[in-house]
Amino acid sequence: MQVAIPLYPRFTALDAVGPYTVMAFAPAFTVTFVAATPGPILDDQGTLSLTATATYTDLPTPDIVIVPGGPGTLDALTDRPLLDWLTEADHHTTWTTSVCSGSFILAAAGLLKNRKATTHWAFLDQLPTFGTTPVPARVVTDGKYVTAAGVSSGIDMALTLLAQATDVLTAESVQLAMEYDPDPPFNAGSPKTAAPAVRERALTLFA
């Protein structure tokens, strides 16, 4: 099973690395970071880079696509090589997926029109701009399209996807191998549970 994760400037690292780790643990899965040109691509902090080892042309027919989000999403919405690759790759994928604002990139490629999807809570109400129905859930599946909410939810999405691509036993085994057993120190990981002051402070971090 060939998994492709496209990278673009100012992506959010965990959006890519979380699902990468899940899929890389799975037997018979090969994960490749792709971009218009191979080489290191800096994340949204400008201090961490991941290396694209293949171009879009090198990997035209992946089984799974996972699009990360991040502040660079705005520029990626008009990145023609990326959008064209997504549109063509989607003809061949078994699953086309995204994490966080990566759903906007799928939508810009015309792949989420008249479909249900999710994204980071702060931007969820903007999905209808693309003809997409927003769903405030951590993972949303609509046909072969699987979208995840903000950042850390990419791990949940990847485990959900892995169970569909293989079986629950494999997904649970990978979860245990990663020791993914969330027990956050604060009950502030969702806009439903965070205090108003926390939500306001969180929104300033995007500036």
From TrEMBL:
Pfam families: DJ-1_PfpI. Keywords: Lyase. One of its GO terms (molecular function) is lyase activity. It comes from the Bacteria. Residues 2-163 form the DJ-1/PfpI domain. Its EC number is 4.2.1.-. The keyword Lyase applies. The keyword Lyase applies. It is an enzyme of class 4 (lyase). InterPro entries: Class_I_gatase-like, DJ-1/PfpI, INH-QAR. This is DJ-1/PfpI family protein. It comes from Sphaerisporangium aureirubrum.
